[in-house]
Design goal:
It is a single chain. With 207 residues, the protein is of the alpha/beta class. The chain is built from 8 helices and 9 strands. It has a single domain, classed as Spore Coat Polysaccharide Biosynthesis Protein SpsA, Chain A.
Length: 207
């Protein structure tokens, strides 16, 4: 039976972005290094292992239609990931979810245990995210649905940075401790140079 935290948590996989460094290939379609058909499908499977209540895609791309998951348009469009987070938080508000798990689609190694800890750590915090190298890992993070107030305020000021949003939350933003080995699991595939040799050819051929 799902734990109470799982029942209140909406999992959002961020699939927007132009993937310009990948030559326009949607990064979520790249074959996962563990053999999953794509990075997005790997995350969809992980979402089931951490018992989140529902999964949505944040961004609208026809290439993901076969997954038969809700796809959310940014609110508003054209402002980067904060528009996606605002869409996810708004959807959570309408659905009665108390928090969201926001995860970028280009994280090929993120593990179920890390996501589980994001769900469970500091349950009263407005946001929970890893923090290292002087930055928050804003798209492997948990946000309280109530943080939408801060997101709307940032948008009204013309501020579009997720780093800025977490800074605005102040003590309401809690750091998730990670070992160096766990930090390595959060490296992303931002360009072809980032793709491990194991998956480079198989992944890019999926375009």
């Amino acid at each position: 039976m799902p734990r109470p935290a799982a029942q209140r948590t909406l999992f959002g996989i961020f699939v927007g972005g132009r993937s310009s460094r990948m030559g326009g290939i949607p990064k979520g379609t790249l074959r996962a290094p563990d053999g999953a058909p794509s990075l997005v499908e790997r995350l969809v499977s992980l979402a089931k292992t951490v018992e989140t209540a529902a999964t949505v895609l944040v961004g609208q791309r026809d290439v993901y239609a076969h997954l038969d998951l809700p796809m959310l348009a940014d609110e508003p469009a054209g402002v980067g990931p904060l528009g996606g987070l605002m869409a996810l938080l708004s959807h959570a508000e309408r659905g009665g979810f108390e928090r969201v798990l926001a995860v970028a689609c280009d994280l090929p190694y993120v593990s179920g245990p890390i996501l589980e800890r994001l769900i469970e750590h500091a349950p009263e915090a407005m946001a929970v995210a890893p923090h290292y190298g002087g930055q928050w890992q804003t798209l492997c993070a948990r946000y309280a649905t109530a943080s939408s107030v801060h997101a709307r305020r940032a948008l009204s000021r013309g501020e579009h940075s997720l780093q800025g949003l977490l800074a605005d939350l102040g003590s309401g933003a809690c750091k998730l401790p990670l070992t160096p080995q766990e930090q390595a699991l959060l490296r992303d595939w931002d360009s072809p140079d980032d793709i491990d040799h194991d998956g480079a050819h198989a992944g890019l051929e999926r375009g």
